[in-house]
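2024-03-11 09:14:02 DEBUG pipeline.ingest accepted 1 chain
2024-03-11 09:14:02 DEBUG pipeline.ingest length=228
2024-03-11 09:14:03 DEBUG pipeline.predict start
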Amino acid sequence: MKNYTAIIVAAGKSSRFKQKNNKLLYKINDTNTIIEKTIALFSNDRFCTEIIVGVNVEVLDFLLTKNYQDQKFHFVIGGSERVDTIYQCLINHNIKNELVMIHDGVRCFTSLDFINKLNQTFCKENYEVLIPMLPITETLKKVTNHLVEKTVNRDEYFTIQTPQIFKTTLLYAVYEQYFCTKNKKIIYDDSYLVELFSEKTKIHTILGEKQNIKITYPEDLKLLNLGK
């Protein structure tokens, strides 16, 4: 395994969470909020030597009251979209590590064991990109205007998670190309930029963790018996 830089995306507005506070600041237990638990995943990994957190003002104000004074922590004000936030994280720091892991701030239930597995597999196989995925277990249909067009083969489709790991040079290259493009597309995850701007690069996958859910609604916490 190698040392890496973690970029944590935490600048969202939580419009779908339907709570008074930003979901990143939602307390999942007596001591930790969602964003604190996510940050802890990487701060407890000895191979993670730099943590860059892309934040909005609300999240920044909260984190500045906590004990994140270590030199490996950096906070960057993000943009209106996820891709803007990560780009700000990239251009505001001279990342020296050869590897970068990008993780959603609301995915606080992944494990350090999985992060290490991701790092180990990436380095052992000398990949350029490695992303976690899960198979779809329910029936998958294409629907337009509330009408079913067809049933598709679910074995050909997977849901994608974070953290995603990249070689740093590749990540900088695809982001620079994206921001030089006039007709920008909606970017769902960072590996999509590799699909668009580095077509010859192979995007490898690894089986993810079922527990590694992206917290979007309060019900997501209730499913884990953590809701209040």
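2024-03-11 09:14:41 DEBUG pipeline.report The domain at 4-223 is CATH 3.90.550.10 (Spore Coat Polysaccharide Biosynthesis Protein SpsA; Chain A).
2024-03-11 09:14:41 DEBUG pipeline.predict end
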